[in-house]
Amino acid sequence: MASAVQHGRLAAQAAEVLLGRIRAGEWALGHKLPGETTLALEIGVGRSTLREAIRELAGQGVLESRQGSGVFVMSTDIAEDWDVVLRRVSVASVLEARVAIEAEAAALAAHRRTPSDLRAMRRALARRSGSHHTAEEFAGVDMALHREVVAASHNEVLLELFDGFVPRVREAMIEMLKLRPIHDYEADQAAHSALVEAIAKRNPAAAAERSRAHLTGAHRALS
Amino acid sequence: MASAVQHGRLAAQAAEVLLGRIRAGEWALGHKLPGETTLALEIGVGRSTLREAIRELAGQGVLESRQGSGVFVMSTDIAEDWDVVLRRVSVASVLEARVAIEAEAAALAAHRRTPSDLRAMRRALARRSGSHHTAEEFAGVDMALHREVVAASHNEVLLELFDGFVPRVREAMIEMLKLRPIHDYEADQAAHSALVEAIAKRNPAAAAERSRAHLTGAHRALS
DNA sequence: AAACTCTACACCTCAGACAAGTTGGGTTCG
DNA sequence: CGAACCCAACTTGTCTGAGGTGTAGAGTTT
């Protein structure tokens, strides 16, 4: 399970490996981990380093060590704030995750969209086509349309995830627009219109494809 | 400020002392603590013990150590919740979100998987093929394989999202297995093997499709 | 004044030794 | 036979000393 780790402190890497194996269910809640010496040898770090990793997870409430007895799994939940995660990672990886969310949401929306959803999407599309002077303004109407698409999927989790991405993606989008404005505005608007129409026609494959094409295009423009 | 009753681990006591002095304002937010050797001597514990105390507080987000620079105060308390959201919604919507994450991750993994990733996936696949008596045990090895696939995408956000789903999906999976065991075990294992092979052959479309097919199958079985 | 080099000092990791606590099996005693 | 005891083999806890790696700032050069 040594998934190519090489950045940062060794103890932090070891903690990540342990957390992964715990969350994958290798050691159930309340169960005992192998001994320190065994684990250290298995992961490939010194015993002191492994102990620091355990202490780090203990601080997060995941593990608890009892002298003479062993180290036990206390909780599989982590205490990391979602915003913190997104701020730590690259914009590119957030955008990739956004592709996953939106493409799937578009396909589901093609199945489940109601006439009311469709009206909301077309209203957002119309607002997007209007004239916008600042990058902030344009980012706002663009994100609003994308949000309507995800909302039309009628899946709470996907919408919640999308909303989590919004601030970070919005920042990146404004940054990008200021550096390199959209060269073909007509084509961009047409791509969004095509996405909405695919959902309107209840064509999941086309909706997912349109969504994916647009977003990977943005991804490419960024790099 | 006389030391209280000495209960439990020395490292835990040292962590408490440190937290107390931080809360008392001895070291302001963002400031640097004295060096390890100095602090260890001052508190009256060994250096490695003090390091474990620091690591414990680092796990709680209170401290952050930077190699070559020092240990700094990051915060004075803690708080959060994203897990609550997942517990509120239906298993079906979580599973739909999981399709989004895993299918995209599988495609990315087909692009980016390293030989090391591949070894990890095949190891997990082998463990999954072994005999498992309890539903919990099987759920563990199954989730471990799926996690390796997501890890091979080398996208932190997707992996973080997947990990967020694990506890909820795991519960549902065990529940389902107890009600209706897998009827065709060979086909199930073959489907997973096919997914790994598609990633090995660097075929993103096939990998995504295999992943999607397997998960929507599970989704259907649930409803 | 800016850029470069170098050194002192910080944390990071390891290995080994011993202390302290827990567990479980064997023994002894009632 | 059963209960209490004892002990040996684990476990985690702590300390030490030796190197390694990275950072920041002083000093030098341009």
Topology, element by element:
The structure is a homodimer of 223-residue chains.
Chain A: H1 10-23, H2 36-43, H3 47-59, E1 63-66, E2 70-73, H4 82-88, H5 91-112, H6 115-129, H7 135-151, H8 156-179, H9 185-200, H10 204-222
Antiparallel strand pairs in A: 1-2
Helix pairs in contact in A: 1-3, 2-3, 5-7, 5-8, 5-9, 5-10, 6-7, 6-9, 7-8, 9-10
Chain A binds a DNA duplex (30 and 30 nucleotides) through helix 3.
In words, what does this structure look like?
- 2 copies of one chain form a homodimer.
- By secondary structure, chain A is mostly helical.
- Chain A is 70% helix and 4% strand.
- Chain A folds into 2 domains: 64 residues, Arc Repressor Mutant, subunit A, CATH 1.10.10; 141 residues, Up-down Bundle (Four Helix Bundle (Hemerythrin (Met), subunit A)), CATH 1.20.120.
- Chain A has 10 helices and 2 strands, in the order αααββααααααα.
- A two-stranded antiparallel ribbon of chain A has the order 1-2.
- Chain A starts with 9 loop residues before the first helix and ends with a helix.
- Chains A and B meet through helix 1, helix 3, helix 4, helix 5 and helix 8 of A and helix 3, helix 4, helix 5, helix 6 and helix 7 of B.
- Chain A binds a DNA duplex (30 and 30 nucleotides) through helix 3.
What is this structure, in a nutshell?
The structure is a homodimer of 223-residue chains. Chain A is mainly α and 223 residues long.
Kindly report the CATH topology of the largest domain in chain A: Four Helix Bundle (Hemerythrin (Met), subunit A)
Strand order of the largest sheet of chain A: 1-2
CATH architecture annotation of the largest domain in chain A:
Up-down Bundle
Radius of gyration of chain A: 23 Å
**Number of separate structural domains of chain A:** 2
Number of helices of chain A: 10
Distance between the termini of chain A: 31 Å
Q: Write down the secondary-structure element order of chain A.
A: HHHEEHHHHHHH
Query: Would you report the number of β strands of chain A?
Result: 2
